[in-house]
Amino acid sequence: NFSGDNNIIVSGNAIPRVATLFENFDLGENIPEKWNIIRTADPYDYYTTVSITSSTYDVNSAPHAAKMQKMNDTVSPLVFVTPGVTDFNTNTLSFYARRGHPDYFRVKLAVGVMSDPYHFTDFDTISVFNITDDFVQYQVTFGEQTKPYIGFLMVNGDYAHSLSIDDIDWRTIGNNPPN
């Protein structure tokens, strides 16, 4: 027999979704606010992560880019998640990416949608790209979506590999990028 107060009080602030987004990672050396990284739970694997880099090899537009790097873990997901977005029926995602080294042969990046930016379990793949040695602009159209977060998933491959992402743009085709 149980008795007592079964009410739970929850408080917090909702983060509004955005209709447009442009991120070139040039405002500093930290992951931008409202972005998230889903990475290995192994506390000793410091190298499987996403970081902001200023290496001239890794950036499309100076001074910074995001670098996704997997080391020692070919099983756990590594996902870089955008803030929540809207307008999937009218907007297109474009971004630049290149692999981190010519010796990293099998570098693939999946772009998908998620309902929870902190858990990988409901990641739905929309497109998969083979990432090359040169920065290439990639584009993804989504169509009707109910999951508001876009995730960049580094597809498992070799023991060690990396890629850089820069100039991520979410907008209606034909519009100028936001300032």
Task: Summarize the SSE layout with pairings.
Elements: E1 21-23, E2 36-38, E3 49-53, E4 65-71, E5 79-81, E6 91-99, E7 108-114, E8 124-130, E9 136-141, E10 149-155, E11 160-172
Describe this structure in words.
With 179 residues, the protein is mainly β. It is built from no helices and 11 strands. It starts with 20 loop residues before the first strand and ends in a 7-residue tail after the last strand.
Give a concise summary.
The protein has 179 residues and is an all-beta fold.
Shape: globular
Give the helix tally: 0
**Quaternary status of these chains?**
single chain
- Total strand count, please? 11
> Which bin fits the share of residues in helices?
under 10%
Provide the gyration radius in Å: 18 Å
Backbone structural class: mainly beta
| CA(first)-CA(last) distance | 61 Å
The whole-number mean of residue pLDDT values reads 89
Strand-residue fraction?
35-45%
* Topology as a string of helices (H) and strands (E): EEEEEEEEEEE
Describe the biggest sheet?
A: 6 strands, antiparallel
Poorly predicted regions are none
